[in-house]
Design a protein that fits this description.
The complex is a heterodimer of chains A (307) and B (326).
Chain A: H1 2-30, H2 45-54, H3 61-72, H4 86-120, H5 126-140, H6 143-157, H7 175-200, H8 204-211, H9 216-253, H10 259-268, H11 272-300
Chain B: H1 15-32, H2 42-45, H3 50-59, H4 62-79, H5 116-152, H6 154-168, H7 172-180, H8 189-215, H9 218-225, H10 230-267, H11 278-285, H12 293-321
Classes of the chains: A mainly alpha (307), B mainly alpha (326).
Chain lengths: 307, 326
Amino acid sequence: MGRYIVRRLLQMIPVFIGATLLIFLMVNVMGDPVAGLCGDRACDPATAAQLKREFGLDMPVWQQYVTYMGNLFTGDFGTAFNGEPVIDLMASAFPVTIRLTVVAILFEIVVGITLGVLTGTRRGKPVDTVVLVLTLIVISVPVFVTGLVLQLLFGVEWHWVEPSVSAEANFGELILPGLVLASVSLAYVTRLTRTSIAENRRSDYVRTAVAKGLPRRRVVTRHLLRNSLIPVVTFIGTDIGALMGGAIVTERIFNIHGVGYQLYQGIVRQNTQTVVGFVTVLVLVFLVANLIVDLLYAVLDPRIRYA
Amino acid sequence: MPEQPYEPDRVIAGTGAGGAMDLAAGEAETLEKTPGGPLGTGPQGKPRSLWSDAWRDLRRNPVFIVSALVILFLVFISLWPSAIASGSPLACDLAKSQDGAGPGAPFGYDGQGCNVYTRTVYGARTSVTVGVLATLGVSILGSVLGGLAGFFGGLGDSLLSRLTDIFFAIPVVLGGLVLLSVVTSNTVWPVIGFMVLLGWPQISRIARGSVITARQNDYVQAARALGASNSRMLLRHIAPNAVAPVIVVATIALGTYIALEATLSYLGVGLKPPSVSWGIDISAASPYIRNAPHALLWPSGALAVTVLAFIMLGDAVRDALDPKLR
């Protein structure tokens, strides 16, 4: 197990370097980072040159990347162009987005798996068909449409919730945005659980469990569900990274000042340091989530052993 | 961990089995044939391939028929939008801002006083163009790279797998914002280019797995033993038996590319006005959501139906092409 983790951690290094280098190149080569500082007018060449020197932007790109990564591992994420340290922006943005992601993941686990079990054990019944059609519709409607429509209905028409989230962004306010963020993955989790349950329902161990007289509930939760959860856990695990990075749209609709908001602002204002810093953390989250998923396999299925 | 299923409704690579079934069906038919009869002619003597089986299944599937009709209609209005909508989508009259349905405007008017019906009809062209071209680009690039990597293996294969890992670590919408925010050209090409750039790893992974399965089949080994060249084995023997999963994933992906274009346009980095796109219209209508919800709901509905049609088509094609489900 220990050796496996070390090997996986080593494998993560090239992916981490590749992904951060890619985003670094995208941000630095495609745009002119100083242009964002001068507003709509073009910068005075002397000012631009001084700013570039000040931020180290006159060095070759590879050298900027190496310097940046070096600073990063000492905990220095650089300074946004408005003088605010990027780490401060992260300290205010990440808790909000983590809360949002937690709400979304809870929706996926509780609602998604419940619906999946419900439909998987009743394949072909009306419940199954209705849920299946609903999931297809949810998958097809883009998140920003779902978000705007739910905001219109719950926030504006029926006044059940505030249409826009306050600066504190506590859990209660994040229920609707969390549902919106989770919606597509929720539908996938339902379908995945359904397929998995329906497949395993015919297996020998389920027949044995039923034959030895276990109550239905116990057969489903202890035997069927545990064996059917592996693909679902994989999906939810890889989704954590996607949810945190994909919250840009949801956070924009509900005016949540989290990671997505900061990223959007950073990109629109060409704030290189903010964008690269946040993306680096997101890539790390994605990689670690993938590792944890692989380790969870062994917990869920004792037949899987890592040498 | 290159084999991890990122695509939840991923195709269970059934090409190998499909090829085997293919052969078995061919054999059975040969036995029934009268000796000396013309090979493969007539409705009875024709060997049933995976494709003709799939086509027979599809024709009977109501989901396929409905989604195919919707898609045909969308293609029709994106080629000839003026056939069902009169006037220009850019002809707007501020005096009619946020008005409800009226003569010639069954969907009402948006905040700028543009005819929502006309704009919704004309918006189909953007979505269909982006969806089809991005899918073509992604499929070609992805299958060539993934197929070659799967066939030859070795260092190139390892490098490609690591490269796809890197692309998977970057959230798509984020990549789109970064890359497209600096583009000034207001055409569909940068959007399509971005989708191809970030989308090919998905197809490449599927194509690679499917080629590796097909490569191990007996008929490929036989072709190799008979001295077939690499290109002949790839094109004549492997490609036809490995292409099914790619087609399925590509059809479903087409729907998601349409949704992605609208999302990027909504965020202001895809297409920009005066281009006509459902994403732009939804974005423009969202501030007036309280007073003129119709300006938001019609383009949203059109977008949802379009994406749904492609995803359902992909679902139906998968069911037809996956012999395990028969």
